[in-house]
Amino acid sequence: MFDIVPIRVFGTSSIGVFLATNNSVTFLPPDVPEKIDDIVRNTLRTTVARLTVAKSPLLGIFTVVNDNGVLLPPMVLEEEIRLFKALGLNVEVLNTKYTAISNLILAGNKVALVSPLLEPSVRKVVADVLGVEVIVDTIAGNPLVGSLAVLNSRGVLVAPEATDEDLKKLAEYFKAKTDLGTVNKGKSFLRGGIVVNDHGALVGDETAGPEFMRIQQVLG
Which family is this sequence assigned to (predicted)? Predict the structure, then answer.
């Protein structure tokens, strides 16, 4: 049973900017209405943790999470780090000049595709904290690999700009079904419009029927 549920957060269909999930916990900003908690629990089948990064609600941009750990950007506050650690995950702050770290890392539970923009010194931290093999590459020549694809253990959904060669590489890296898709009526920055784990997916409420079908085919 893989449910896909359309939602809106803070008046926008760009829900992946605010939410992040693995298979056990979903990060939500403190001000999201409580009804979203129920949708998260029923669809993604996780617990809910209300958190901020640098007092910002943009958890989907400022965190990279898998079942092993969570990576945070340099401007996260000490008390916020403590709250993430209380969830029982490995937690590490990346020593990088970049803040929107989720745009630079596409992380599964065994492999992470890391942007060539991310400093080489940071790659080992990514490998250690997330417990993954790190591969450095681009998607369609674009270094924002984390924004152009979403994945779970079954599949990788990739922006339409990706070439056949990209699809072949990603299928090999992640050992999963890989195909093109969009969200929110044709948006190719998938990460901004989908929050997915192995149990289900939340999508922006502008997502169209054919997009739902493709998400189900690849990730469901």
Answer: Belongs to the eIF-6 family.
